[in-house]
């Protein structure tokens, strides 16, 4: 995940402003085209909510790397939260480095098997993020960073195909290729041409095993193009890959439009999906793939005060948590109003203080924040055009 300028800036939002912004969402209008039909059974048959524009909208919870190899009790509690808030998807890391740390070791899928089985019993679909190349498979000039791409895209594609072969019979047929490749998460700096090669090779390899697999373009960070920071805007990166033909190999494009403390309905990051002059939908249309939908594979709001007040004992922290809850409500309303958005994943289930991340629906001690019930209520109230 990225820390954009909007996410860095914190401040107390006045209660009346929160109400005004939330009400403004009701009147938000986004122009759109018909969402592409999916061949993936999980997408086509899943019990998606339908927003005010009549498009299917799937909700999920993003867990990052917190559940890979975690104890069964931890996995069960985390997935129970997804069910409780009304989500039908979970997004988790599937790092190659953890599956095959050495060239000779072979693939060890056991770290994710528990999660996939537990998700299946709860009728939850899994969006695994394929990334993090082991040292032995990186280029020699970029061997010290696990975020470096593979020396050979076909080697990564072989890993992805093996994952599809292993987890396909367990119900997994959706795959997200890398995470935030428009940042230094593709080390040492973003490379649209390099990502295009990886994306095409990996998509082909997965579909050779799973012809109807659903492939997601790795979630793009909502940042501005800035060579000094080694980052490329989501529009610029997507347009560059599209010109090379890469968007023809995906079923959806991942996007991470964090915007707190600005509410989604008023945020440029969310307008960049389809409303600003240089938006993701426009980039897809220019590439000849106008019907590819946007999957918000990460969204959420940080409670920075939790770093020093983990139990929310102070009024300022309690106020920040109320703002996070209002953000969750506004987020669901905003994505439901945009027909180009087909899925939204809240990051995260629980705070990760070791990583200085406080986006959780739960605090580090496991207690629920107001955002838990706010997200649950907002998802439940996301109705179809008929009002049912």
SSE order, one letter for each helix or strand: HHHEEHEHHEHEHEHEHHEHEH
Shape: globular
- Tell me about the largest β-sheet: 8 strands, parallel, barrel
| Total strands | 9
Let me know the average pLDDT: 88
Radius of gyration from CA coordinates: 20 Å
CATH topology: TIM Barrel
Secondary-structure blueprint:
Blueprint: H1 5-8, H2 15-26, H3 41-45, E1 49-50, E2 56-64, H4 72-85, E3 89-95, H5 96-99, H6 110-121, E4 125-131, H7 153-167, E5 174-179, H8 192-209, E6 214-221, H9 234-243, E7 252-256, H10 268-271, H11 280-286, E8 294-299, H12 315-336, E9 341-347, H13 370-380
Parallel strand pairs: 2-3, 2-9, 3-4, 4-5, 5-6, 6-7, 7-8, 8-9
Antiparallel strand pairs: 1-2
Helix pairs in contact: 2-12, 4-6, 7-8, 8-9, 9-11, 12-13
Account of the 3D structure:
The protein has one domain (5-127, 162-173, 241-380): TIM Barrel, CATH 3.20.20. The protein contains 13 helices and nine strands. The protein has helices spanning 5-8, 15-26, 41-45, 72-85, 96-99, 110-121, 153-167, 192-209, 234-243, 268-271, 280-286, 315-336, 370-380, and strands at 49-50, 56-64, 89-95, 125-131, 174-179, 214-221, 252-256, 294-299, 341-347. It has an eight-stranded parallel β-barrel with strand order 2-3-4-5-6-7-8-9, surrounded by four helices. Strand 8 (294-299), helix 12 and strand 9 form a beta-alpha-beta unit. The chain starts with a helix and ends in an 8-residue tail after the last helix.
């Amino acid at each position: 995940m990225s820390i954009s300028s909007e996410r860095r800036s914190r401040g107390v939002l006045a209660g009346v402003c929160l109400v005004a912004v939330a009400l403004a969402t009701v009147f938000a209008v986004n122009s759109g085209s018909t969402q592409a039909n999916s061949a993936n059974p999980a997408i086509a048959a899943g019990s998606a909510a339908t927003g005010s524009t009549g498009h299917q909208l799937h909700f999920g919870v993003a867990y990052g790397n917190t559940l890979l190899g975690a104890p069964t009790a931890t996995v069960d509690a985390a997935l129970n939260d997804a069910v409780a808030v009304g989500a039908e998807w979970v997004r988790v890391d599937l790092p190659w480095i953890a599956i095959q740390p050495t060239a000779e070791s072979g693939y060890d899928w056991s770290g994710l098997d528990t999660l996939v089985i537990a998700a299946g019993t709860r009728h939850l679909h899994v969006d695994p993020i394929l990334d993090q190349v082991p040292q032995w498979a990186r280029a020699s000039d970029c061997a010290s960073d696990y975020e470096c791409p593979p020396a050979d895209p076909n080697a990564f594609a072989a890993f992805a195909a093996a994952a599809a072969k292993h987890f396909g019979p367990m119900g997994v047929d959706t795959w997200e290729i890398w995470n935030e490749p428009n940042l230094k998460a593709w080390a040492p700096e973003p490379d649209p041409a390099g990502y295009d090669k990886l994306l095409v090779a990996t998509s082909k390899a997965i579909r050779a095993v799973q012809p109807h697999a659903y492939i997601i373009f790795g979630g793009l960070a909502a940042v501005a193009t800035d060579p000094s920071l080694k980052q490329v805007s989501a529009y610029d990166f997507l347009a560059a890959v599209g010109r090379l033909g890469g968007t023809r190999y995906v079923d959806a494009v991942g996007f991470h439009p964090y915007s707190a403390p600005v509410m989604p309905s008023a945020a440029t990051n969310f307008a960049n999906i389809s409303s600003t002059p240089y938006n993701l939908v426009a980039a897809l249309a220019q590439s000849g793939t106008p019907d590819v939908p946007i999957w918000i594979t990460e969204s959420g709001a940080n409670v920075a005060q939790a770093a020093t007040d983990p139990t929310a004992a102070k009024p300022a922290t309690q106020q920040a948590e109320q703002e996070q809850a209002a953000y969750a409500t506004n987020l669901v309303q905003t994505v439901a109003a945009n027909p180009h958005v087909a899925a939204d994943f809240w990051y995260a289930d629980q705070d990760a203080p070791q990583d200085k991340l406080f986006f959780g629906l739960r605090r580090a001690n496991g207690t629920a924040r107001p955002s838990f019930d706010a997200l649950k209520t907002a998802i439940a109230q996301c109705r179809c055009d008929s009002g049912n």
